[in-house]
Amino acid sequence: MSLLQIKNLSVEFGSEKNPFRAVEGLDLSVDQGEIVGIVGESGSGKSVTMMAMMGLLEGQGRIVADELTFDGKNLLTISARERRKIVGKDIAMIFQDPMTSLNPSYTVGYQIMEVLKVHQGLRGAELKARALELMELVEIPAAKTRLEAYPHQLSGGMSQRVMIAVALACNPKLLIADEPTTALDVTIQAQIMDLLVNLQKERNMALLMITHDLAVIAEVAHRVAVMYAGQVAEEGTVPQLFRHPVHPYTQALLSSIPEHSKGARRLVTLPGIVPGQYDRPSGCLLSPRCPYVQERCRNERPGITAHEHGAVRCFYPLFEKKEAP
Amino acid sequence: MFFFILRRLGVLIPTFFGITLITFSLIRMIPGDPIEVMMGERSLDPALHAAAMKRLGLDQPLYIQYFDYISNLFQGNLGASLKTQQSVWSEFTTLFPATLELALCALVFATVCGLLAGVVAAIKRGSIFDHGVMGISLTGFSMPIFWWGLILIMLFSVQLGWTPVSGRLDLAFDVQPQTGFMLIDAWRAEMADPEYNAGAFKDAVMHLILPAIVLGTIPLAVIARMTRSSMLEVLREDYVRTARAKGLSPARVIFIHTLRNALIPVLTVIGLQVGTLMGGAVLTETIFSWPGIGKWLIDAIGRRDYPVVQNGILIVATLVIVTNFIVDILYGIANPRIRHAK
């Protein structure tokens, strides 16, 4: 059984009459020790999915799903109190902007020790020793003095390391990294990615990596889900999906990477933008932008269908590679 | 931290001189002089008037009078009241506890209710409670103190008869002023003579309630609104999301992670309210015949008692400055980013 199993998850915002579906019919599973990537443009529902799962939407979004289980526990029906015993302990999350994700009024040490106190009941010297151990685990130099430092005294890379230390404090089974390197310098990005991947291997935890950086996914992930406008457009193993993308959107996404454009003068782009609340097409959500669009695509919304190497949400998947007209 | 305090102290000196200059000139701009006011409607022999002015040193050019005033100040001499011949300092120290007691109770009332209302309004944003609190606080903020005081007296003292109309204590009690704080003095008197002074403490409380509410209304409104907006701002911060993602209880998220940061601007606002309280005390004390420095200063202005007005206001202003100074330091303690600033 998968560690995390999501089936047909939808998240709606706004009024009952005029709802906006930020996530629609999303299926996702993550096994123990697996690295799964979620890619998509801004506003494609990547973060909202994770926030919904962790119960961080604070009653703003309405969450509907056929199944939402973590480690055998049904996250849809458990009480808020029960959920808090899982969140921060078995599922931990790190965020995009480490500089603002740490509370400026408390020392780094306090913020690490807080999780240990709340979830593991550690006290006194044991607590301090464990915090120091975590600081060293995430390779923070001069860890002992840094325990007393305030977040504003740390660089972005250091702050993200502290966030990772907080996340790993209770040995989570699943770590969700929501664009963990977007706000960092390129050199620091590589260090943080290495750190995350090493820690993942060492502890055999599952890592769910949310990003819009395809290169990162290609390098580290085992499986990947491509999201578009709140839906999973295509899902598959990394080598398969990167070599033979079958969804037109995935194909467009991959060909928009400069390295892939192979001598073409202009970078391939998909005209238009992700549909928002008021311009959602009645058919396939990609239909207004899709170069292969057919009449059926405009009127009917495709479901997700499994194939040999993964799953795709398209009536006319590109099993034989075609060039965009 | 040492340099932080030193830097703040440096700013105080020009402020201090500014106050002396303003009070000195303002009181002299009001028509009439102490002698004229003392004599009232009766005609005054110009020669006698000139002699009296000379005796008080008021015949000198203004810059010399100001210089004398400042040099006296530096020698720690605050002068004596023209009316009672008592030193300004001793009059002040006798009356100040009454004002302090009133202002402290008003501030405690305003802070406790304001923080509570602001926090709950922020958490239940958009609810009826939120709209109610914000509407009431806007009303409270716009309410003229003298009108609000009279309305409360009409309702609670005259119509319902729940509280006394004015003063600090019923005359029937035998309470010796020891600390100057009526609550403490009445409590001690009641302990010392439980039979004769039975109910003195309760009576002191009943006398204090209405003036404290009247004086605390504007600060309460300001604190509630500030707390609400500050809380709402902080609740949107990434680190509050982090706190939730850590699986912390809602109480911990609100009080440890949100309120602590939201309090920083509120603290400044509370500090600034000390000025409002002192200003409000003048009106409140007049309405409730509360024998404090507000009433003392109003009377002094009425009879052009130059030394009392100049130095009384100077002392009050210094108090406000010192409180704001302390708030600045507290601010530094609450916000590590300021403490570490070079």
From TrEMBL, chain A:
SMART domains in the cross-refs: AAA
GO cellular component: plasma membrane
Gene Ontology biological-process entries: peptide transport; transmembrane transport
A Pfam family annotated for this UniProt entry: oligo_HPY
Domain ABC transporter: 4-254
Nucleotide-binding found in the keyword field: yes
Example GO molecular function: ATP hydrolysis activity
Keyword ATP-binding among record annotations: yes
Alphabetized PANTHER family for the sequence: DIPEPTIDE TRANSPORT ATP-BINDING PROTEIN DPPD (PTHR43297:SF2), OLIGOPEPTIDE TRANSPORT ATP-BINDING PROTEIN APPD (PTHR43297)
Entries under SUPFAM superfamilies matching the protein: P-loop containing nucleoside triphosphate hydrolases (SSF52540)
Lineage of the species this protein comes from: Bacteria, Pseudomonadati, Pseudomonadota, Betaproteobacteria, Neisseriales
The protein, known as: Dipeptide transport system ATP-binding protein
Family: Belongs to the ABC transporter superfamily.
Localization, UniProt: Cell inner membrane
Organism: Vogesella indigofera
InterPro entries xrefs: AAA+_ATPase, ABC_Ni/Peptide_Import, ABC_transporter-like_ATP-bd, ABC_transporter-like_CS, Oligopep_ABC_C, P-loop_NTPase
Membrane-topology descriptor: Peripheral membrane protein
UniProt keyword terms in alphabetical order: ATP-binding, Cell membrane, Membrane, Nucleotide-binding, Transport
TrEMBL record, chain B:
Signal peptide: none
Localization of this protein: Cell membrane
Residues that span the membrane, as ranges: 9-30, 100-123, 135-158, 204-224, 262-283, 313-334
Domain of life: Bacteria
Ranges for domain ABC transmembrane type-1: 96-331
GO molecular function: dipeptide transmembrane transporter activity
Membrane topology designation: Multi-pass membrane protein
Pfam family, one: BPD_transp_1
Keywords recorded for this protein, A-Z: Cell membrane, Membrane, Transmembrane, Transmembrane helix, Transport
Ion transport found in the keyword field: no
A GO-annotated cellular component: plasma membrane
PROSITE patterns, per the entry: ABC_TM1
Main location: membrane
Protein name from the UniProt record: ABC transporter permease subunit
